[in-house]
Amino acid sequence: GTSDFSYGFNSKYLKYVANYWLNKYNWKYHEGIINTLPQFTTEIEGLKIHFIHAKPMHNNYEVIVPLLILHGWPGNVFEFLKIIPLLVDPIQQIGSDISITFEIIAPSIPGFGWSAAPIKKGEMKD
């Protein structure tokens, strides 16, 4: 079957996965979801770093708190796609009378997402 990896990677499974990604996976749909959040890149110590920077869209909040959220290994910032809108605009998302919100900065750690891989030995350790 496609789940037997006793003697290494299963070529039947690889063909199944490749076929799924080529013919069935709806990349445009997921790309649209990803692109709902403002994304940027910057350079830090020679590395291109990708990050999401989401701010409240209106001034209905008395307090706006900056919040840095970091993903773990081997994750990426897109794990936060559902929570960022709730944190940035709780009035619109939940509909309650809330006076505080967050400005979110969510960087992709080097080597993950669209951030460049480390270029110096020892920059990323398990």
UniProtKB/TrEMBL annotation:
Domain of life: Eukaryota
One GO molecular-function entry: epoxide hydrolase activity
Location of the Epoxide hydrolase N-terminal domain: 4-80
Keyword Membrane: no
Biological process annotations from GO: epoxide metabolic process
Keyword terms, alphabetized: Aromatic hydrocarbons catabolism, Hydrolase
Stretch forming the signal peptide: none
Listed SUPFAM superfamilies: alpha/beta-Hydrolases
Family: Belongs to the peptidase S33 family.
Protein name per Swiss-Prot or TrEMBL: Alpha/beta hydrolase fold-containing protein
Originating organism: Brugia malayi (Filarial nematode worm)
Upper lineage: Eukaryota, Metazoa, Ecdysozoa, Nematoda, Chromadorea
